[in-house]
């Protein structure tokens, strides 16, 4: 007996405890199936209203007096991220700069905290900016970047990490959720192995913050960075965040000595004296509008609850994989994500993935393309319905049956 997949999707949506959160977002094109929230989240309605108020009332009326409240925004957003999203303690997270800049700051601070150790470890499928920043840190400080092999579909393994560790390793830096496949790394086991080797552990949380539980406190993670414009829905170019475990903060000194990291900021002193708290990892003037957007997005995710968000993302992914098995595997697709232990996206491999992604856009479905030949389907739980998964993959099935994707050029003029 065949399963009525449309009816199944409707029943799953009716039973979804997070269904009401979709109404909290701006849905500009009702017919559009948006499966790229893991690149850029939708606009929350509360963020639109908050930014209008910030522009009209605070900037427009208060002018420079607005700094009476803006000065604490990086800490305020950091507290919501720490306690509501990241499983960290108060005073351990700040909103600041970009992911790349934060990675640089923490990587340098970590290497300096392990003098005499000459090796940084990462993996060959870590996100490009992570690999580039770490390569630059190693080159500038005459260190060695040791790159371990990770599987494109199943991610980095604890065995590969252990094999790379020795008493010359200062820092290990990996992604919690693999950007290509969505595979979730074992934070607890990997962090423990790194600590046993006497090194520090730095996690990139860009694809996990707001999507999956992040055990920073329970795993004893040293350092972490992440962005807010994906599953935290803070908008394009929104500021990133960084995490430093409380007992490490006074020990570490980051390399960009800006006035927001100064102990007595407004004394305008002649020499840099870093703040004794998490503030020492700040640099310059924080982005206020982006900061408000990040605060709104983090608050929305915290109110939904990370455990409930993760449960729904798992269910959405499981449903997508059921449809893949039934509809898409016969058309030459291969699953390029784990069947379990995934973040909030499912990746499919097909030799024509680029052309297929363009055909999907023409059919009002926005997916994401990633090399090599991968179609990434972002399933953002706060606004993606099971009906969206059904509709998006049904349109993909139609494209494959009609072979309409073949009329698109295989030459990639841009990567989204």
Automatic annotation (TrEMBL):
A Gene Ontology molecular function term of the record: pyridoxal phosphate binding
Hydrolase recorded as keyword: yes
Gene Ontology biological process terms in this record: anthranilate metabolic process; L-kynurenine catabolic process; L-tryptophan catabolic process to kynurenine; NAD+ biosynthetic process
Pathway in which the depicted protein is active: Amino-acid degradation; L-kynurenine degradation; L-alanine and anthranilate from L-kynurenine: step 1/1; Cofactor biosynthesis; NAD(+) biosynthesis; quinolinate from L-kynurenine: step 2/3
Substrates-to-products reaction catalysed: L-kynurenine + H2O = anthranilate + L-alanine + H(+); 3-hydroxy-L-kynurenine + H2O = 3-hydroxyanthranilate + L-alanine + H(+)
One cellular component (GO) term of this entry: cytoplasm
Keyword Lyase: no
SUPFAM superfamilies named among the record's database cross-references: PLP-dependent transferases
Cofactor annotation: pyridoxal 5'-phosphate
This protein's UniProt keywords: Hydrolase, Pyridine nucleotide biosynthesis, Pyridoxal phosphate
InterPro entries reported for this sequence: Kynureninase, PyrdxlP-dep_Trfase, PyrdxlP-dep_Trfase_major, PyrdxlP-dep_Trfase_small
EC assignment: 3.7.1.3
Enzyme class: hydrolase
PANTHER family referenced in this protein's UniProt entry, alphabetically: KYNURENINASE
Quaternary structure and partners: Homodimer.
Function noted in UniProt: Catalyzes the cleavage of L-kynurenine (L-Kyn) and L-3-hydroxykynurenine (L-3OHKyn) into anthranilic acid (AA) and 3-hydroxyanthranilic acid (3-OHAA), respectively.
Family statement drawn from the similarity comment of this UniProt entry: Belongs to the kynureninase family.
UniProt protein name: Kynureninase
Source organism: Asanoa ferruginea
């Amino acid at each position: 007996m065949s399963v009525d997949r449309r009816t199944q999707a409707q029943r799953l949506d009716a039973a979804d405890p997070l269904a009401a959160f979709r109404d909290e977002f701006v849905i500009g094109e009702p017919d559009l199936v948006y499966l790229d929230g893991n690149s850029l989240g939708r606009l929350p309605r509360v963020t639109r209203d908050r930014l209008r108020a910030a522009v009209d009332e605070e900037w427009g009326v208060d002018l420079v007096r607005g700094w009476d409240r803006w000065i604490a925004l990086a800490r305020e957003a950091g507290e919501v991220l720490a306690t509501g999203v990241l499983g960290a303690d108060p005073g351990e997270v700040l909103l600041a700069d970009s992911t790349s800049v934060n990675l640089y700051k923490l990587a340098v601070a970590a290497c300096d905290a392990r003098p005499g150790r000459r090796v940084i470890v990462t993996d060959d499928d870590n996100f490009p900016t992570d690999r580039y920043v770490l390569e630059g840190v190693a080159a500038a400080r005459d260190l060695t970047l040791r790159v371990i092999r990770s599987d494109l579909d199943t991610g980095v393994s604890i065995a590969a990490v252990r094999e790379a560790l020795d008493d010359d390793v200062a820092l290990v830096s990996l992604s919690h959720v693999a950007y290509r496949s969505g595979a979730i790394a074992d934070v607890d086991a990997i962090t423990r192995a790194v600590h046993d080797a006497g090194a520090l552990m730095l996690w990139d949380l860009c694809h996990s913050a707001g999507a999956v539980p992040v055990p920073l406190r329970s795993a004893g993670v040293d350092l972490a960075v992440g962005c807010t414009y994906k599953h935290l829905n803070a908008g394009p170019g929104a500021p990133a965040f960084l995490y430093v475990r409380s007992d490490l903060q006074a020990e570490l000194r980051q390399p960009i000595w800006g006035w927001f990291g100064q102990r007595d900021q407004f004394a305008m002193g002649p020499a840099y004296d870093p703040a004794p708290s998490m503030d020492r990892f700040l640099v310059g003037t924080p982005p206020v509008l982006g900061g408000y957007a990040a605060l709104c997005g983090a608050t929305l995710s915290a109110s939904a609850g990370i455990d409930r968000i993760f449960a729904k993302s798992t269910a959405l992914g499981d449903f997508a994989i059921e449809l893949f098995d039934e509809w898409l595997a016969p058309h030459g697709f291969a699953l390029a994500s784990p069947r379990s232990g995934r973040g909030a996206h499912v990746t499919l491999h097909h030799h024509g993935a680029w052309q297929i992604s363009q055909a999907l856009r023409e059919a009002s479905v926005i997916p994401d393309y990633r090399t090599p030949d991968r179609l990434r389907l972002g399933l953002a739980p706060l606004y993606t319905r099971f009906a969206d998964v059904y509709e998006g993959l049904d349109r993909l099935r139609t494209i494959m049956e009609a072979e309409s994707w073949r009329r698109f050029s295989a030459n990639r003029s841009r990567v989204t």
